[in-house]
Amino acid sequence: MQITINGQLERIAQETLEEMVRRKGLAPEHLVLEHNREVVPRERWAQVALQEGDVVELLRFVGGG
Amino acid sequence: MDDDVLTIGGHGFTSRLFTGTGKFADDARIPRMLASSGSQMITVALRRIDAEAGPGNVLDHIPPGVTLLPNTSGARTAEEAVRIARIARAAGCGDFIKIEVITDTKYLMPDNWETLKATGILAEEGFVVLPYVLPDLTLAKRLEDAGAAAVMPLGAPIGSNRGLETASLIALLIENCRVPVVVDAGIGRPSHAAAAMEMGADAVLVNTAIATAEDPVAMGRAFALAVTAGRMAFLARMAEESREARASSPLTGFLGAED
Description:
The complex is a heterodimer of chains A (about 60) and B (about 260).
Chain A: E1 2-5, E2 8-11, H1 17-23, E3 32-35, E4 38-39, E5 55-63
Parallel strand pairs in A: 1-5
Antiparallel strand pairs in A: 1-2, 3-4, 3-5
Chain B: E1 6-8, E2 11-13, E3 17-20, H1 29-37, E4 41-48, E5 67-70, H2 78-90, E6 96-99, H3 112-124, E7 128-133, H4 137-146, E8 152-153, H5 167-176, E9 182-184, H6 190-199, E10 203-206, H7 208-211, H8 216-236
Parallel strand pairs in B: 3-4, 3-10, 4-5, 6-7, 7-8, 9-10
Antiparallel strand pairs in B: 1-2
Helix pairs in contact in B: 1-8, 2-3, 3-4, 6-8
C-alpha cells in the first residue's frame, strides 16, 4: 500500500506506527508523530495500523527563536 | 524588584528576559545560558525529522520550571500556524504559543493579517497566544480583541542585531495596549534590551544575540542585567531631557566671591 510520510509517497507493507518508526531507525523519545492530522501518543503507536492513503508527519522540536 | 511580576496567561514571570534556542553552536550551552540569564521562558521550533541539523531533541536541554514557548516558524498561513500550535500542545509543550507567520524570506517580515487570523482561532481554543508582529497600533488592538495574551513587535528584522529601529511605533503599543508588550527580534546588544525596558516594554525576547555570542552563557547574564536595569529605570521614572545644560552643582558661593 501507499502512504505519505513527511510529504513523500512511500510504498510499505502492512505495519503499525510503532513498526514504521522502528523500521526507520528513529529514536521514539525524540519524535512527535502526527497521523492523519492527529498527534498519536507514543503508547498508542503499537495499536494503530497504517492504512492505504494515510498521511504521517514525523516531527521533532528543534532550536528556534 | 522581587514583587515586580509579569503575568502572561496566568503564569507569573520575575525575569523579563525571554530567550530562544536557535543558533547555539552547542545545545548543551542552553541550560547554562538559562541558569546565567535567569530566563523563565524559552522558545522552540517544530520541524520534520531530518530536515535540519543533527540528532537529539532541544527539549532535553531545557530544565523543568522554564516555560516552553513553542513557535510556529515555518508557517506561511494562519492554517499552518494553527496546525503547528495544536501539534505542539498535543506533544506536551503546554498552552503557550508564539505565532510566527512569514512568507517574506528576505526580511522575514511577519504577515500581520494571517497572524491575526491564527490568533483568533488559537485564543478561542484556549492557547496563550503571543503573536510576533510588525508594531502597528491598529493591529495590536485587533490582536487584543482576538484574545492575544501579549503582543510581540519586532525591533528590527530577525537576527539582524540592529536594535530598536521601530522604537517610535513600539512606544505607541506600550502606551495603548492592555496586554503586555514584548519586544522580539532585532535586539543585538544588552543596551538595546535596556532601552526597550526603559521605554516601558514589559519584556524582551532575545535569541541570536545570546546564542551567537562567543560566550552565550556570559552574554545571557549581560542581557539579564541590562533588562533588570532598564526595568528598574522605567519604574523609577527617568528625569527629563533638556537641550541646555542644567548645572548639577550650585553656581553660587564660590571661594573668594563677593556677597
